[in-house]
Amino acid sequence: MDHIETSASSDTSRGHVRPLVSRLSAPVADREGFLRHLLEHLDEDMAGSVDPEGETTLTIYDCDTRLRFTGETLSVTVEGREAGQHGVAKGVVAYYIQHILGDACPPLVWSGDGADTRELAHFRALRVVSARQITPHMRRVRLSGQDLSRFATGGLHIRLLFPPKGRVPVWPHAGPAALPVWPQGEDELVTRVYTIRSIDPAAGHLDVDVVLHDPPGVGCRWAREAQPGDPVGMLGPGGGEVRSLERLLLLGDETALPAIARTLEELPRTAIGHAIIEVDGPAEEQPLLHPPGVQLRWLHRNGAPAGTTTLLQDAARAAADTVASAPFVWAGCEFEAFKAIRRFCRKDLGLKKNQHLVVAYWRRGRRQDDEPAGDEEG
C-alpha cells in the first residue's frame, strides 16, 4: 500500500485524460438543513452554486462535486482527473454525510471509478531515516517513502500512524465509502497530528519536528526512540495552508513553529508582515529563512509554563496596528490563546473567513502530543 497510483485513466483514442466519475446516494429528509450544515463546515471557496431545488456544486480537492435531491434522496456525483484527489474527495463527501445524518445514515457505497480499490489515496507507508535534536526541546525525524508529491501541497498537517512495537504493521484500507477502515485488536494503530516541516518528493523524504516535553506522550516517546528503519504510516495532507499573500501576520508557540518556519520559506520574497513565535527561551530559537519584509520576533516565557501567558495575544494586538489593510492572519497555539486571537481577528480586525486561519494546537492540562484541541477557524 505504500504506492498509490495517481494517474487517471487515459482515453488514447481521443488523446486526452478521461475524467474519473463516482456516484453515491443517501436518504435526506431535510435538504435545506443538510445543505446549511454542510456549508458551515466547508471553506468559502469550495461552494459554487447552492440550490436545494436544483443542483448544488462544490469543488473539493479540485474535483467537481454535484449534489441533487429527488424527493428525500440525495444523489452525489464526484468528478476529477487525478486518482489521488478523486479518492480523497469521495472520502470527504462520505464523512460529512455520515456526520450530518448521524445514526440515520445507512452504509454508504460509492459506484463508478475507484469503487473496487482498497487503497487509500492519501495514505503512505514510511520508514524512519534519522532523528536528531534541533533545540533542547525540538527533535527532527526524517521519514522516507514513495510517491510523496501530493503531500507537498494541499495542507500543512499530516496524521502519523504508529504501529504496535514488535508487530508487522497492518495499515488502514479504503472501505466502500472511500473512508479508512482501521485495524483492530493487537494491530490497532495510535495516531497523532503533526506538521510537515519540509518535504522533498524527488528525494523521497520529509521532515517532521516534534516538541519534547515531560511527561512524554505517544508522539514524544516515538520521536525520542525512533530508529532508522522503523515503520510509520501517514495520512494527509490537510489542515489548511497559509495563503500566499503580500501582507500577513503569523503567530504561534513552539507547537506551531514547524508550520510557521515552512510557511516563511515558501512565501514570496515580496511579502511583508510579522512572524511572532513564543518559546521557552533563547535556546529554543531557530534560524529561519524569511522574506526581508517579514519581521521575525521571538517571545520568551522565561520559565513560565507553556499556555499560562498572554504573550501571543498581546503581540497580536500590537503588531496588527503596523500591518497594512486586509492582512491575512494565521495562528497556532494553546486553546485559550486560540480563543482570544480568534475573537481579535473577528471582532477587532473584522477579518472575513478567508482572511484568517486560527488553530488550537493543544489544550493546557493535556499532553501536547495528545489529540489536538480540535478547534479551527478559517
From TrEMBL:
Top-rank taxon: Bacteria
InterPro entries this protein is in? FAD-bd_FR_type, FNR_nucleotide-bd, Riboflavin_synthase-like_b-brl, SIP_FAD-bd, SIP_fam, SIP_rossman_dom
Looking up SUPFAM superfamilies in the UniProt record yields:
Riboflavin synthase domain-like
A GO molecular function term, named singly, is: oxidoreductase activity
FAD-binding FR-type domain: which residues?
121-244
The cross-references to Pfam families, in alphabetical order and at most eight, read: FAD_binding_9, SIP
PANTHER family (alphabetical)? FERRIC REDUCTASE, NADPH-DEPENDENT (PTHR30157), NADPH-DEPENDENT FERRIC-CHELATE REDUCTASE (PTHR30157:SF0)
Q: Which family does it belong to?
A: Belongs to the SIP oxidoreductase family.
Annotated protein name in UniProt: NADPH-dependent ferric siderophore reductase
The organism encoding this protein is Aureimonas phyllosphaerae
